[in-house]
Request: fold
Amino acid sequence: MKQGDLVTRKSYGGDIIFKIQDIIQRKAVLRGVDYRLLADAPLHDLNMASHYDPYLFASGGVQPKWMDVMRRMPGGAHHQWLIPVTKTAAGEYFDIPGKVLHLDGDPAYMRKCMSLYAELRVPAEGFYVAEANMSEALYSLLPQVQPDIVVITGHDGILKSRRNGDISQLSSYKNSHNFVNAVKTARQYEKNKDALTVIAGACQSHFEALLQAGANYASSPARVLIHALDPLCIAAKVAFTPIKDTVNIVDIIGLTYSGLEGMGGLESRGSYRRGAPNYQKK
Reply:
């Protein structure tokens, strides 16, 4: 086995497909393919997985419900699942969805997310940043990008040694402390939760600590696995929810793969603005 191979763990019944990130002293560092989970395992506990492209959601991948909703929309107008389409007396409106700044600790997820933002017509800038460096990166990126929505995600997980112990401590998690630091940096930049929506966390992340740090939405209330695209789903919904409306928490979390066990949050306003007339068509 080598770096980059897709594998499953024998001791867990092969339930999750991982990619080998590194091999250190006969132990593999693993990153989830469909799920934002970081783990490790001895090489003898690994089986090679069937090859497929998980980021295209082929037969082996887990496809979230909202992907089906999006792809069934007629005429390719995928954003219509998020907002109603109307016309004004002065002519067709023009729309300005909320702008997203997405920091991701996984370069493959980052590429897939940017492709989907473009498909949904959500203005977004994405950066691959290691989880430990996210707080520092935000100091320069926030004033540079000036987003309405920030997504702070990557990989996480409860440490093996703490799985049956006290999971209330940040020290029990692989990357939750890094996400908390990044959220705090975002809130130093903009304290108003309606002016800057912060979505943070990954698989099994410390939900309460992320909310206390200032996140609007976070994972993972029940310490479960979340799908790679769950944070993007929430960001897209917020981007196309009018600023006069609050996002329905139950509805938005219901669209995600992991549901209310995997994602939760606070009542927050949308970031979408509508204007008229549509000067771009004149």
